[in-house]
Amino acid sequence: VGNNTNVGIGKLSSSSHKLDIEGSLGVSGNVVPSLNNTFDLGTTTNRFNDLNISGTARIGDSTLADESGVLTAAGTVQMNALNVTTTANISGDLAVDTDTLFVDVSTDRVGINNAAPSTSLHISGTDALVLPVGDTSQRTGAGVTGAIRYNSQLVSFEGYDGANWGSLGGVKDVDQDTKITAEDAAGDDNDQLRFYTAGQERMIVNADGSVGIGVSSSGTYKLELDGSMGISGSIIPKVNEAFDLGSTTARFRDLYLSGSSIYVGGATIKGEDNNLLIEHNVTADSLTVSGATDIDGSLNVEGSVIAQNSMEVQGTAQLNAVNVSGNADIDGTLDVQGAANLQSTITVAGAADLNSSLDVQGAANLQST
Question: Which residues have a Cβ under 8 Å from the Cβ of 9 and sit 6 or more positions away?
């Protein structure tokens, strides 16, 4: 005991401590400070080596307790660094740097840069989310429904539906041979849509809006088709008398119609009982008719006319040459500048003007000049 009333046990008393002990201190009761929240156990420069407690340690309003070998903390725990080599069980929320990583145990939600996650995983940021990247062989062995990854071999994002992996980029089937592509390769920006089925390109839409079906559109036509076209409705031009069907250099071969009429300008061509009826004036270089011919208007043929059956002209007939095997009935004027060979009856109700010979093997009935 020093003259300053300080006590030393196992050593001389210290002037800085009321009780100075050289050796261990054993107690059989509690060590309780005389004032609450006033004294420290150790200092920032003189610390104890280990703290061995078999019960609960209360630090402020928080507690640390041992539960079957697991250290349990009740309250908020803040640490500069944490190194866990085995399992760490946290019964409350987990906050790393306030919201860098936040786990809300009441909703089972995780927030990244978000302390109030509204979904199972809520990420707040403006950069990007990087998904797993690998080729087809690196897919998970047992696919998990809803899995998403980037396939570096197929250059496409893909997802697993519980049975198969499928592309998430555009329209593609599982084996990638039926699809729609917007560019030939990433970054090409060729502004074309290509449609594939069974590995073959079937249709293309070009940047100018032209479409090719079965052919790579040249852009000359709005729609270019390689193959036959079947329709179940009418083909009607949007503007009257503005468009053609074919051209002088690109023509259709044959025309098949099941209707009764063809309208050409102001003329009408009709089919009645296997006969062809033209309700307008007719002008032709040459004309050969094997069936009956009924012309309500004028007939002007600069070449020869061969009628193997009866021919009836109710208007004027002006012909270079005429050869009729059947009856010829002309109600108007007959003007033949060449030879006229009639093997049957000819009846002319108007004037008949022949500049060459007239050979009639049947009756000739001229009611006029």
Answer: 19, 20, 21, 22, 23
To the nearest 10°, the Cα dihedral for 329, 335, 340, 342?
Answer: 10
Angle at 54 between CA 51 and CA 58, to 5 degrees: 70
For 303-334, how does the pLDDT look when each residue is reduced to its tens digit (9 = 90+)?
667 766 667 776 677 666 677 676 777 777 77
* Interstrand relation of 275-278 and 282-284 (parallel, antiparallel or unpaired): unpaired
**Strongest mean pLDDT among 152-161, 215-224, 286-295, 345-354:** 152-161
Asked if 287 and 309 touch (Cβ cutoff 8 Å), the reply is: no
Q: How many angstroms separate the CA atoms of 152 and 165, rounded?
A: 14
What amino acid occupies position 354?
L
Collapsed DSSP state (helix, strand, coil) of residue 52: coil
**Which tops the pLDDT comparison, 59 or 131?**
131
Percent of the chain with pLDDT over 90: 21
Q: Which two tokens stand for residue 126?
A: 């403006």
End-to-end CA distance of the chain: 173
| 15-51: b (≥16 Cβ within 10 Å) or e | eeeeebeeeeeeeeeeeeeeeeeeeeeeeeeeeeeee
